[in-house]
Amino acid sequence: MAYEALYTRARPKNLAQLVGQEHISNSLARALNQDRLSHAYLLVGTRGTGKTSTARILARAINCDTVHEANENKKILPNDVIPCNECEACRSFKSSPDNIEFDAASNRSVEDVSRLLSTAYLAPLQSRFKTFIIDEVHMLSFEAVNSILKLIEEPPPNVVFFLATTEFNKVPQTIRSRCQILNFKLIPQDVIANHILNLAKDLNFSLEEAAVRKIARLAKGSMRDALTLFDQCYSMTDSDLLTVDIVDNTLGLVSDSDLDEIVEAAKSRDRRQIIESTAKAFKSGLTANIIAESIITRLRDIVSDIKDSRSAELAVYNEMIDQLRKSVIEMQGSGIPEVILETALFKFASNPVSIPVYEMPKDYSFEETYSPPVRESENSPKPNIKDKVVNIKDFKTSKKNQSDAAGDLDDGS
Fold first, then answer.
1. Does the pLDDT of residue 373 top 80, yes or no?
2. Closest C-alpha to 20, from 204, 219, 171, 300
3. Which is it for the CA torsion 330, 336, 340, 343, positive or negative?
4. Of the four, 121, 253, 342, 367, which is 20 to 30 A from 350 by CA?
């Protein structure tokens, strides 16, 4: 029997299994329970965040017998039974002629779309609603978009459209204004990590915390990418424990120990060690751009573990991140990216790092260390004006005597 990829086995079957998109699943559950679904939805988000899976869940739910009976009886269903996946309508969903899926990336001409939508005016054969799931709708040609615009504006009865796209800005405004828009967020790393751990338990498989964190970080918010990476490591190892070293070796990544070696070489300002550590990283076969981004990611993990915001190490790591970030920009279109990476590390090693300014402690009291000058009170005795006059006369007399003495000296010379 052929091996089934993990991301297809773990595909959500109801709204409760839609991981990381609770704002969408809860909103759709309320709309289904109140029988207030729209005739057209535009699902927007990056790859692997659940757009197509949500469209299939919705298409199955609006034809589900359990959901239909709950609406008639004014009963509220929880997310884990929307749809129920047990009634006849749910079991026959995949083979139903009323559920039509269309990939606009490979069928983008107006002839393809017109042929597909010609059946939209026909009544459903088996289901309550006829559903059209059009993936990557932004890839349609201008004429193809115009051909579906009239259908979305004035849809036939019992027809629902689900349009999915990864590039919202390329979807014409005329389509956007006629659809309810569902924005899919990037899934947080901790959510991805917890989901992978739960799947690993079902597979009787164990993962190190560092390994699952690295897979979640590499996925960059895409659950499908995370499951694909985990499936690759799981299927290509003989061990029952997935370690971070196995992840690095399987995926061809630079290990954290090699990255730490580069960081320590730059931190100690050892040019010879910088050359040796970067040369070791280049042997992995990865480009200098990817290695620089890996170092930045590793530094970000190190910085996040530093609790003291006034730490001198924090200033060092931030300066290193800034230098590497500039080098990544310089590498674009350059023929010597390896030299640019080494130069950035050399530049960091030769420049002094600015230490952050010391901040006053919160419990510091200014009044305790500062005493204002004492002013003379109104009742304090004032100097006598006669004394001042006498003093002035004495001053003039002394000045005159000094002048006469100076004249006598000149005459004697």
1. no
2. 219
3. negative
4. 253
Numbers of helices and strands, H then E, in the chain = 19, 7
Average pLDDT over residues 191-209: 91
In which band, very low, low, confident or very high, does the pLDDT at 102 lie, cut at 50, 70 and 90? confident
Q: What local confidence, expressed as pLDDT, does residue 413 receive?
A: 45
In the structure encoding, which two tokens stand for residue 65, read together?
């017998």
Q: How far is CA 343 from CA 62, 299, 338, 354, 409, in A?
A: 60, 18, 9, 20, 78
pTM, to two decimals: 0.76
CA-based angle 331:334:337, to the nearest 5? 55
CA distance 120 to 157: 9
Decide: 256 and 299 in contact? Cβ < 8 Å: no
pLDDT exceeding 70 applies to what percent of the chain?
Answer: 84
Q: Secondary structure of 84-100 in the HEC alphabet?
A: CCCCHHHHCCCCCCCEE
Residue of higher predicted confidence among 62 and 107: 62
Contact 212, 197 (CB under 8 A): yes
Spatial separation of the C-alpha atoms in residues 247 and 232, rounded to whole Å: 9
DSSP string, 337-364: HHHHHHHHHHHHHHSPPPPPPPPPPTT-
> Tokens 């080494």 belong to which residue?
342
**Long-range contacts, 174-178 (Cβ 8 Å, 24+):** 174/145, 174/149, 175/42, 175/137, 175/145, 175/148, 175/149, 176/42, 178/40, 178/149, 178/152, 178/153
* Residue the block writes with tokens 């109104």: 378
Which tokens belong to 136? 């990557």
Q: Name every residue whose Cβ is closer than 8 Å to that of residue 407 and which is 6 or more positions away in sequence.
A: none
In the DSSP assignment, the letter for residue 410 is H
How far does CA 284 lie from the centroid of its chain?
Answer: 27
Q: By the 8 A CB rule, do 348 and 292 touch?
A: no
Stated length of the chain: 413
pLDDT digit string (tens) for 321-337? 888 898 888 888 888 88
Distance CA 364, CA 312 (A): 22
110-145 per-position pLDDT tens digit? 887 887 778 888 888 888 999 999 999 998 888 888
Identify the pLDDT of residue 109: 81
